[in-house]
């Protein structure tokens, strides 16, 4: 018997308005994938350090282009978001924090927390 | 009614045939990466802004070398495991899935080796 691959499928994730917790959940996964790609940039930077002062200077020129800087700070925010939501996953793994009020409160805490951590990094490192 | 054999039960490997080790290592590396992120950000800040000698001195001091190597080991393992889960969730075709997971794992192994060799080369300079 021929299999009909064109049947209507469910659930249609895109047609629903996602709750904040749902948006954060998929953002955690997306930031994880992006940060994994960002590791290539890390390897480039550490190779420039190993390559001597000339390659290092060339890397600094490139990394200080405004567009690259913008992407860099995007990565820093993604890192802190992934870290904060990751901590929440660890709390969930311990079997805690599943009721609705706690979920929504944590959502706001991790959004604020990742922003604050990014700002602290910006203040303490930017020259 | 439980149809599983006593041997299958005692192995506790479940339908994924790998037990909980993947899940567990993902958590261990995650916890390790929380404090180690501090070293990553310190390193990135120096690399992007500081003079060459200062960055080399920082990277070659024993504590910083150990923490950067630990970060590299944990982060590339954590990333490869995370990407494997994403691939397993969204790629349905069995052959493509296996090739994709292998490609990701081998690529991240190569990147991790490259990063470690760069750290050790810097040790020789400094």
List the helices and strands and how they pair.
The complex is a heterodimer of chains A (127) and B (126).
Chain A: H1 20-50, H2 53-63, H3 66-93, H4 100-125
Helix pairs in contact in A: 1-2, 1-3, 3-4
Chain B: H1 6-11, H2 21-49, H3 52-60, H4 62-90, H5 94-125
Helix pairs in contact in B: 2-4, 4-5
Can you describe this structure?
The complex is a heterodimer of chains A (127) and B (126). Chain A contains four helices and no strands. Chain A is an all-alpha fold and 127 residues long. Chain A has a single domain (21-125), classed as 3 helical TM bundles of succinate and fumarate reductases (Up-down Bundle). The longest helix of chain A is centred in the N-terminal third of the chain and has 31 residues, at 20-50. Chain B has one domain (22-125): Fumarate reductase/succinate dehydrogenase, transmembrane subunit (3 helical TM bundles of succinate and fumarate reductases), CATH 1.20.1300.10. In chain B, 24% of the residues are buried. Chain B contains five helices and no strands. Chain B has helices spanning 6-11, 21-49, 52-60, 62-90, 94-125. By secondary structure, chain B is mostly helical. The chains are: A mainly alpha (127), B mainly alpha (126). The interface between A and B is medium-sized, with 35 and 35 residues.
